[in-house]
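Sample entry was shown:
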Amino acid sequence: MDLKQLEYFVRVAELGSFTRAAHALGVVQPALSRQIRALEVELRQHLLVRNGRGAIPTEAGKVLLAHARGILHQVQRAREELGRVRGALAGRVAIGLPPSLARTLAVPLTRAFRRALPQATLSISEGLTVAMLDALTQGHLDLVLAYNPPGLPDITLQPLFDEPLALVQRRAPGLPEDPPLPIALHEVAALPLIIPSRPNALRVQVEAALATLGLKPRVELEIDGVAAILELVADGVGVAVLSPHAVATSPHASELVARPLTQPELHAHVMLASSDRRPATLTQQATADLIRTLCAQRYGAPRVPSSPPDPAAGATPAPPAQCPG
């Protein structure tokens, strides 16, 4: 067997499809199939089973997958160690950012990365939390910044910083810009709310927080995307619950006001996610350190959450907020 065969096999096994793996690797599917078949012949084992939904590893394939990931990782580490001997870390790091953070973090992160790791390559993608975590699991991304992602197998989460959630409204004529007037959460129930569809964690958190007050949100529209939500709010269609960062980076920022939520406050926790399936390379570790340092400088330390309510006492703890973009 050779490294190319192992890399091809790992991609097919992780993506669950020869077609998707061929696209990700930039090869034609027949060539990919030949390499996998040659590997199976050499090992005298069927490694993948095709079905109507793609391809899944056999028992032998699962064993090889664990070893192949380790082998490929060690090869990458060896290359990076050799690069360090030359005086610089190399390799490619793919990072996923939610759109609201990409607008404020992508440029300073790129600058810091190029200064610290001039021989390495940085790739930044924008996306929703669920989609980015899926890409992380499949190996398309190495690191993901996400608004309170759910706990998932093989995913390590590290807190970076916190943002208070605010009620976003269209700015009324003559309304002073600063400071925005706070609003109690129970008042939100009477307002036409533009909010992501379930199971978005922000939606669930808002509903759960209102439920503890014996209230329900008045959902005007369900929209999965920060930009579209803010455009509709600026157009006067309704209000939204989002982070102030989302408003500050919007083209409609001057038309909007973000009012602090009180009684109770709601917070979104930004986490750095990495996959346990692929141990971090030295370049990825250095990039994660850059991200932590940069976020601490720009946003401060993460907030220590208070103890959740006791379900036995009749209160349902709200899940953490996941910003819809």
In short: Residues 76 and 281 are 7 Å apart (CA to CA). The chain has eleven helices and 13 strands. The chain has a mean pLDDT of 83. The longest strand covers residues 155-164.
